[in-house]
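Supplementary Methods S3. Input chains for the assembly prediction are listed below.
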Amino acid sequence: MNLKPIQSSINNIKPIFKREFVSFFNSPIAYIFVAVFLVVTNWLFFTRFFLTGQANMREWFGLVPWLFLLLAPAITMRSWAEEKKSGTVEFLLTLPIRDWEVVIAKFLSSLSFLAVVLIFSLTIPITIGKLGDIDFGVIISGYVGAILMGAMYLSLGLLISSFTKNQIVSFLISLSVLFAIFIIGSNNVMSFLQGPLASIMQFLSSATHFNSIVKGIFDSRDIIYYLSFTALFIYLNIQTIGSRNWR
Amino acid sequence: MIQVQNLTKKYNETKALDSVNFEVREGEVLGFLGPNGAGKSTAMKIITGFIAPTQGTVKVGDLDVVDNSFEIREKIGYLPETNPLYTDMKVHEYLKFVAQARQIPKQNRQDAIKRMIKVCGLDSVIHKTIDELSKGYRQRVGLAQAMVHDPDILIMDEPTSGLDPNQIVEIRDLIKKIGEKKTVILSTHILPEVTATCSRVIIINNGKIVAQGTSDELTSARAGQEIIYAKIRGDKERVSSVLSEYNQVKTVKTFSGGETGVHGFGIEISEGDGRELVYRCAVSNNWTLLEMYRKQENLEDVFRRLTTTEE
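Predicted structure tokens for the full assembly:
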């Protein structure tokens, strides 16, 4: 098997990935959102935790999808919008690096940043693990679910960021679209719908799939749902970046 | 080295470039001259592979910019018009990033960066964030970025725009030095820049090439049409009418001579050496010829003439 093209793509992706990843830490906005995410989730979780007295993270994972609605767009809003605004996109896309490699680099760096945020939240399972017996299987499954859902959110955020030069517009549109995808499967919406439409909506909703993963039920359909939508958004992103080449 | 054939680029319905043909030879410094919005940047964006042409082909060596964009990008260094930089990075971080992204092998990377720091005079700012740099230094960082991988071809879109006169001279000298070894395309709307740096000039207006050649060729293209300015002591009306009778004289304009009895004349000559004509005419009519000089069309006049549409 010829590994040379793969090696060359990895070499192309690496510097872009690194620059993007480091730039998150140069931006105060990212810090603010991360701090808000951690403080809010910890606060809401622990105020309830001592009331219910149960050593599990079900409550916390219930908060995650809501806060990801804010966190994911905050991570991705700059990604393409800022490059377009400052003109660096012209530099970036005339480097001897393929469009898809740039898109993947941006996706992986934002996913890594999200992973760092999730690592900071590990204080919660560690704390409750000391206080009682917890099922680590369920918690690991919850974190895997959070990463999968995060990947889908981030890929969509990146795609939307590539449509605009304005970070705020990018943030707000991503937030709205993610919110729509999130609520279409909720009970409130379901009560208006019947038959096949209801099951389609429920299938398309990001919330439904997350809930089952968090319960510790690993269904391949849920994983396929997140991975295929992530792949779709990344593919569309590569197309929008390539659209500058349309004749 | 670079062959551009029938290049057309449409943005919606406006043609930014309209069937442009030209060639850039190896080792040449080619200047794109034209008013703002003439299509200079568009041509550069196509050659560097940032956007694709609507019609036509651009070949770099044997490679096509659309089909072999990736290979061509490796050979090109590009300084876009706005000189985009990642302003949150420090200068050395940025250059290291570019060197990595350009796939300079690890063992050569430090040397390449050091060479750029020396060539572009970045010693004193290397640990500063790009944000803090003056425009002149940013432009140098942009040049360093474009040259760090030692490209065969260097494309620079208005490399001296926004710089003060001293910086302009510095950047020009730098471009001249680089141009000795490399193929360079630069665009500008500053005319002396072309004479100072370019071996050949292409004047673009409204997406079309209106003239090309060396700056001498361009200015001598209408060498026949020169104007002789002369100061003659004598009768104003008579001098005018006598001069006007020559076939070679197209028009005679009169100016004030500055002294009593002295008159200035602007004599437009259609062909031949007008200086001799004026001298002989003055001698045979017994006028005193006090001053005379010939004014040829300079690059600025050529540019004005070609790029302003007469209504």
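Residues 34 and 117 of chain A are 7 Å apart (CA to CA). The mean pLDDT of chain A is 89.
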